[in-house]
Amino acid sequence: MFTFIARRVGVSILVLIAASFIMYMLTSLAVHPLEDLLQSNARNRAELIEQRTVAQHLDVPVVLRWLLWLGGVGRCIVPIGGTCDLGTTFTNQPVTELLPVAMASTLQLITASFILAIILGIVVGMVTALRANSGFDFTVTLASFFLYSLPSFLMAVLLKAFIALGYNDFLADPVIPLPTLIVIAIVLGLVLQLLVGGRLSKRIVTFAATAVISAVVLGTMSALHWFTTPMLGPVVLPIIAAAIGFGIVVLLAGLKNRRAYLTAAITVLLGIVSYFALQWLLNISTLGTIVILALVAVIVGGAVGFFVGGYDRGLMVRIGALTAFFIGSLIFIDRLMRSWPYYMSLTGDRPIATVGSQTPGLPGDFWTHGLDTFTHLLLPTISLLLISFAGYTRYARAGMLEVLEQDYVRTARAKGLPERTVIVRHAFRNMLIPLTTLVATDVGALLGGAVITEAVFAISGMGALFNSGLAGQQIAPVMGYFLVIAITVIFFNFVADLAYSVLDPRVRLR
User: Fold this and answer.
1) Are 319 and 249 within 8 A, CB to CB?
2) Nearest Cα to 454, choosing from 441, 467, 443, 445?
3) Whether residue 220 is found in the same domain as residue 303
């Protein structure tokens, strides 16, 4: 293992050096650092040209300039002989000061979309594989190819026009008209009956029940003005918490494991008690408090599973920890919702933002600023999510269909194992093997898409740094962007290689 890691690190460094040389040469051909000064009518134009030439080493051949830049990168890794130096802008601002701010904005943007795309893509892909050649499968396939074909800038513009502006206008009078309510209920009923499948009678019952329940819930939300004063509350939250516990038990342990039900029930009960007991602490919480509470929740849930124990103690620990995590997330979402009316008053009742990553000078506590970050990053995240989601869905479906035809799956079914066990414990893990490659390569594509998305939504992230560098004929910011992207892509490919040996024991790293 050590030899493999050492060899991969060495190869990665060589690849990074070669790629940086190519990128530096291409960028130097694409930009003219003195263009603005040559077109200037300033009296001291010659002095300004001389100062920039010296500051940017423009009197040095381009290959030597690249070597100087590479030496500055080396001092960032091994601080010997000087400080970290990635160059400066024309205003003498170091790129090392610009990168952390830009990276923080981009990291906020792509993290949620990256994780959600993987989770939703794998889940929907598995379901379509299990419902192969059904109406649901055809519908998801059509939607996936449509989303995959859309350019990122068009997706961003459509979201701004129809989601942000439309929902902000809706909040001025948040009442769902009866015809709209009926259409939404019918669409939800059609989607769920496609998902459930089965005989025609079962589909009709599913459609009718879903449509009626959806109409009643949406009508109640509209009548109670839930869209302007949202919350889960002490009634809805326990119901959802119980449903989460039941769903996790069914997914991981099946319908007949009593210890799993006991673990989930105790965890749900503790979560409901915590909801009432910790409201005072949530009102004065900070990010650190929330992180500590999340860790405590997972530990307590895992401890419940450990003490309930049984012949499969590890499974009980996972059930308890997952149940606690999701119930804690519910409590967090409920507390965010309670701050919604105050946040709306600060934004003039138009909370869904279309530009920027935050509202400058916004007053309020942790929850208000959390909502502000959420509303600003909602549309960019959805834009990146939908495009990546389409690819993951297709790969997950193809991988699951291929795995289900393998001999070991047939053997598991022939032994009489429940279908849930066959899918979750046998097929799922092997389906993930080809997806690890896709995840590693998708990081670079996602960061590339963020360049356009950040431009549309005016977010000052890595994309804005790259665009400003090219527009301003500056090499240093462009190379700073390249360095971060290249290191990220190389790192994730390295993690993918390690993941192969975890997912498939037949793979050995030598």
Assistant:
1) yes
2) 467
3) no
The residue among 255, 252, 245, 271 whose CA lies nearest residue 314 is: 252
pLDDT of 393-419, one tens digit each?
A: 888 888 888 888 888 888 888 888 888
291 with 251, same domain?
yes
CA distances for 411 relative to 289, 401, 408, 414, angstroms: 49, 16, 5, 5
Contact (Cβ atoms closer than 8 angstroms) between residue 12 and residue 486: no
Q: Is residue 460 part of a domain?
A: no
Note whether residue 492 is domain-resident. yes
Same domain, 160 and 61: no
Tell me if 137 is assigned to some domain.
Answer: yes
Q: How many domains does the chain fold into?
A: 3
Same domain assignment for residues 51 and 71? yes
316 near 306, Cβ under 8 Å?
yes
Question: Does the structure show a pLDDT above 70 at 121?
Answer: yes
In a 3-state reduction of DSSP, which class is residue 382? helix
How many angstroms separate the CA atoms of 304 and 274, rounded? 15
Same domain for 323 and 415? yes
DSSP state of 362: -
Domain extent for 184: 175-224
Q: Whole-number mean pLDDT of the chain?
A: 85
Q: Is 458 inside any structural domain? A: no
Give yes or no: residues 37 and 123 share one domain: no
| pLDDT tens-place string over residues 264-281 | 999 999 999 999 998 888
Q: 143 and 57 share a domain?
A: no
206 and 84 inside one domain: no
Dihedrals φ, ψ of 69, to 5°? -65, -40
Q: What is d(CA 70, CA 73) in angstroms, rounded to the nearest whole number?
A: 5
| Contacts (Cβ under 8 Å, ≥6 apart) of 123 | none
DSSP 227-288: TTS---HHHHHHHHHHHHHHHHHHHHT-SS-HHHHHHHHHHHHHHHHHHHHTHHHHTT--HH
DSSP string, 258-271: HHHHHHHHHHHHHH
* Axis-axis angle for helices 95-130, 135-149 (nearest 10): 160
